[in-house]
Specification:
There is one protein chain. By secondary structure, the protein is an alpha/beta fold. The protein has four domains: about 10-90, SH3 type barrels (Roll), CATH 2.30.30.140; about 105-120 and about 740-913, no CATH class; about 150-325, 3-Layer(aba) Sandwich (Rossmann fold), CATH 3.40.50; about 405-630, Rossmann fold (3-Layer(aba) Sandwich). It is built from 30 helices and 31 strands. The strands form six sheets. It has a seven-stranded parallel beta sheet with strand order 12-13-11-14-15-10-16, with helices on both faces. Helix 19 runs parallel beside helix 21 (about 610-630), helix 20 packs antiparallel against helix 21 and helix 29 (about 830-870) runs antiparallel to helix 30. The longest helix has about 45 residues, at about 830-870. It starts with 7 loop residues before the first strand and ends with a strand. It is an enzyme of class 3 (hydrolase). Its EC number is 3.6.4.-. Belongs to the SNF2/RAD54 helicase family. RapA subfamily. This is RNA polymerase-associated protein RapA. InterPro entries: DEXDc_RapA (IPR057342), Helicase_ATP-bd (IPR014001), Helicase_C-like (IPR001650), Helicase_RapA (IPR023949), P-loop_NTPase (IPR027417), RapA_C (IPR022737), SNF2-like_sf (IPR038718), SNF2/RAD54-like_C (IPR049730).
Amino acid sequence: MSYAIGQRWLSHADSELGLGIIVELDGRRVSVHFPAVEEERTYATENAPLTRVKLREGDSLHTRDGRKLQVLAVHEEQELLIYEVASDGQRELVAELDLDDHIDLATPRQRLLASQIDSHSAFALRMQTCTHIHELQQSGLRGLLGTRTALLPHQLFVANEVGKRHAPRVLLADEVGLGKTIEAGMILHRQLLSGDSRRVLIMVPESLQFQWLVEMRRRFNLQFALFDESRLAEGDEGLNPFEEEQLVLCASTLFLDPNARALALDADWDMLIVDEVHRLAWSADAPSEEFLFLETMAAQVPGLLLLTATPEQVGQEAHFARLSLLDPERFHDFPAFVEEESQYKRWSTLIDALDKGEPAQGLPADIDPNASAESQIAALLDRYGTGRVLFRNARASVGGFPAREMHPHPLPAVDNPIYQDLYPDLHIDTEQWLQEDPRVAWLVGQLKSLRPEKVLVICAKAETALALESYLQLRAGIRSAAFHEQLSLIERDRAAAYFAEQEQGAQALICSEIGGEGRNFQFAQHLILFDLPEHPDQLEQRIGRLDRIGQRDRIFIHVPYIQGSAQETLMRWYHEGIDLFRASCSAGDMILTKFKIELEKQLRQRGPDFDQLLEQTATFTARTRKELSEGRDKLLERSSCNAEQGLALGKAISDIEDPVSLGEYLETLCAVTGIEHEEHGEHSSILRRGEQELLEVFPEVPEDGCTVTVSRDLALQREDWIFLGWEHPWMENAMTTVLGSSLGQASVGAMTLKGVPGGSRLYELLFTVSLSAPRALGLQRYLPLAPRRLLLDANGRDLSKLLSHERLNERVEKLPRGTVSKIVRQLREEIEARIDDAEKSFASELEARQAEAAAQYGKKLDEEIARLSSLREVNPAIRREEIDDLRDRRAAGLAALGTARATLQGVRLVLSR
C-alpha cells in the first residue's frame, strides 16, 4: 500500500470508526485519525487493516457539511484525490479531506443494481451477525464475556462495579486464593473494550512477571509487552520506548533506575496497575524510592488499581498511605481516618440488625425509616466505609473452599549428612540421590497406589522436577509430565494439557516452584510436596493450586520427609506451629518475620527448645488469626460483594454465551467465508485456513490449524485450547469484518410459495442503526445496532410478519448470474422505489428510537449524578471528578445520539415461481 498524509482510509476491522485521515508516517507505522469518534490508531504499515477510499465517476459523494453530490470525474494531485462534482448545476472541486467522516461505501443498493450478488447463506450470515452484535450491545456485560475465568459471584461483582467506572481508582485486597489478579484482569478487559482505557502499565514483583504475562494473555487475550533494562536500551534515540507499546508489563524494581522513572513519567498512561503494593516500603520518615515513584505516577495517571492480600499487615498508617495514593483529597488526615474507621463497627452492627429483620435503631436522618430493609442497607453501604476505594473479600465470607487433609509420611534416615539438608538433591549427583533418597522410591509407590487419580507434585527447583519426571517415565513406567521455568510457555501449556487429559493423559505433573503460581489444577485432589518452601506464603501458593473456589472435593496433601532432617523440622513448624496444611493463613509473612531467626537456627540443627518454638508459634498464630477475624471490616466485606448481584451477572453471562448458539454461528461463519471447520467433540472444533477464503475473518489461525472451544467449562479444563467466546478478539474481528465487508449485502433468488402467483417479487431488507461515537460514552446499550427486517412486496406492503427470515431462507434457491442481471435491469426502477420506501420507513422508526434513547440515557445519568452528589456530602470517598465526568459524558452522549443514522445492511430480491 502507498500512504500519504491527508488520504482517507477505512478500517475494515472496525467499521464503526468511520472514515479516517492519515496524519503521520514514519516508515514502519502509519497513524490514522478517525474524526467521527475522536480516536487515533497506529498500525504497522505492512499489515494495517485499512482500505483506501476511492470514489468513481457516477458515485454519490457526501461532504462534511451534509451535501450529497454526484462525482463527475476524479483527479489525483500529490497522491491526494480531488473530486469534480455537480452542485446546483455548477461544477466544483471537492478534496478528499472534505468527505463526510461517516461515509458509506459499496452499499447494498449499489451492489444489487450492479448485479454484484452473494449467496443466500452469506445474506443469512449478515443477518445473524447483526442480531448477535445487537444482543451483545444490549446485555450490559461488555468486557465480562469471553474471558477464561470461572463465573464466581464475588469476582463478577467487583469487576462489574469497578470496571464500569470512568478512570477507576481502587485497592483490591481479597484474601489469598480469591483471585485478585483475575479481578484486575476483568476490570482492565472491560476498560479496554469500552474505550475508557487504551494505554496501560502494570508493575509487579520481579518473580511474578511471567505469571502476569501468561494470565493476561491466556485468560483475557491481552498481549502485554515485557519491559526490562535491555528493552529500554533498545529504543531509538530521542524516542520514549514506553510510547511504542499500548500495554506494558514490568518489574517494580525496574524503576530503581532514574532513567526508567523519567521515561515512564514522560509517557501518557490511562491506567496503572500495581501488584503486591505492600512490598513497596513506606514509613512516615523514609518512604522508599519505589513508593515515591508510585506516588508521582499515581498523581498523573487517571486510573489506578492497587493489589495486596494484606492491606494492613505492615501497619494502619502504611495502609492509609496506600489509600492516599488513590485519593489524596479523601485520605489526607490520618487521625481523622482512624476516627472514621472506629465508627465502622456501629454501622456494621446496624446492618446486621436490619438483615435479621430487627427494628432499625440509630438510622441516620437522611435515610428513609419507612424504606425496605434492603434499601436501608444499600444506603448505609453507599454512605459509609471505604467501599468505593477498597474491596476486600474474605474466604470466610465467600465460602466454597474444600476441606484440607494432611498426610505426613516419615521416611528412614540416610547414612549421609547431606540428607539432613532441606534440599539434598541440589548438593549431590543426580543419579546418586535418585537411588539413595527414600522420597524417590516412596513417590513411585505412592503414585502407583493412587492410580488412576491425578496427582500434582511440587518441588523447589527445576532440576529436581526434571530428574523426577525422567525417572518416573523411564524407570517406573508412570505417565508424567514436567512443568518448570526452563520450558517455553507453549511447552508448559502442552504439559498442563497432557496432565488435564482424563483418558490418556499424565497421572502426575511434576512442577518446580513455578507450578505453585498462577495455574489452577482443580480437577486433581492429591498434592505431593516433595519438599517444602522456606516461606509460608509460598506453601500457601502451592496448596492454592488445588485449594480454590470450584474445587468440589476434599484435597489430600502428602508430605514425605526424612526423619531427623531439616525437612521434618520445617514440616512440623508449618503443621504444629501455624496449622498451615489444614487452614489458610493470610498472616504467614508476619509469623515468619517474628520467628525467622529462631526457625533458621532450628533448621540448621534442631535443639531441645524446638518444642518451645512450636508452642510460641502456635500461640502467636492463634492470637493473630483471632485478631484478623475480629478485626474484619464486615461493612467493607458487604460492600465488596453483593452475592445476589454476582449470581445474577453469572447467569446473564451463561445465557448470552450459550455454547449451542455460539457453536452454530461459528459453523455458519466458517462455511460461508471458507474457513475449514472440523468437529472435534462437543462444543469444540479444529479450525484451518481454507484454500479459497471469501473473507479473511480468522487471519490468526496458524498454518497447521488450532483447536477451539465455545464452552467456558471446557476452556477452563483445556488451557491449550482457544476459548472462542463472543468477546475473543478473533470473534469480534470476524463479526466486524463481516459487517464492514460487502459479503452478503445483496442477493437474488427464486422460490415457490403456495398462494403466491408466479412472477411476484419480494424484497427482504435489513436495516441497522449506525452510531459513530466514542465507546466510553456507553451509548450502544441505549441505541444498539437494532436490526430491523422488512419484507416488502412489489407494491410496498410489509409482509415480514407473514413470512419469517428462517422460512424464506430454507426455501429460496440460487439463480444463474446471467438471469440475475436481466432481472435487475428490468426491475431497476421498482428496486430503487422499494429501497426508498424501506429507508423512509426505518428513518421514521429511528427518530422515535433516538428520542427514547436520549430520554433513557439522560435519566440514567441524571439519577447517578444526583445519587453521587448526595452521597458525597456524607462519604468523601465519592470523588468530584467522577461527578464532573458524568456531567460531561451526559452532554456528549446526548449530542452523539442525535447523529445516529439508518444503514441498509442488506437487500435480497426473491421472485416466486
